Amino acid sequence: MFGVWRLAFGVWRLAFGISQTYYRYQAQQSAANAEIADHLVRQPHLQCNWGVGLCFLYLCNVKGYRWNHEQVYHIYRELELKLRIKPRKRLVREKPVPLAEPETINQCGPMDFMHDQLSDGHSYRLFNVIDDFKREVLAIDIDLSLPSERVLRAPDQIIGGTASHSHPQ
Fold first, then answer.
1. pLDDT tens digits along 142-167
2. What is the 3-state secondary structure (H, E, C) of the chain?
3. Structural domain of residue 46, as residue ranges?
4. Does residue 32 belong to any structural domain of this protein?
5. Considering the domain boundaries, does residue 46 fall inside one?
6. What is the pTM of this model?
7. Residues 11, 73 share a domain
């Protein structure tokens, strides 16, 4: 009788294109799955707004468990702990406030750092000071490194009038 069943199963399997291992496979519930489920459900210090990623990182990094993230995700979904991802609330502004423009020379002088890289791989930095009223560059300091003393000296040189730039007359 066993030989007849094997023959019938073989014909049935070939007819539907199903492998024998696929047909006979049964998922095994391990003790680790029960332990993961226990930690996910019964931990009071796991916050309710944590998703599966934060729960996994907490269990691995803080608790020291060596579980697979896919296994934790599967159990998290099985327990229906799905955290809804809320869309961000947009701030509604009726009318944008116009930017403040300076009314006199040297009232507002923004400072900015820029950096770039040479073809040989050395990087250099630029320190710019600009007058907003005249839209004029007051000082540019360029070097491979800009120590804080040089950065602090630039506004003092501009105020004192000793900046190394020429004004066209």
1. 999 889 888 888 888 888 875 555 44
2. CHHHHHHHHHHHHHHHCCCHHHHHCCCCCCHHHHHHHHHHHHCCCCCCCCCHHHHHHHHHHHCCCCCCHHHHHHHHHHCCCCCCCCCCCCCCCCCCCCCCCCCCCCCCCCEEEEEEECCCCCEEEEEEEEECCCCEEEEEEEECCCCHHHHHHHHHHHHHCCCCCCCCC
3. 7-78
4. yes
5. yes
6. 0.39
7. yes
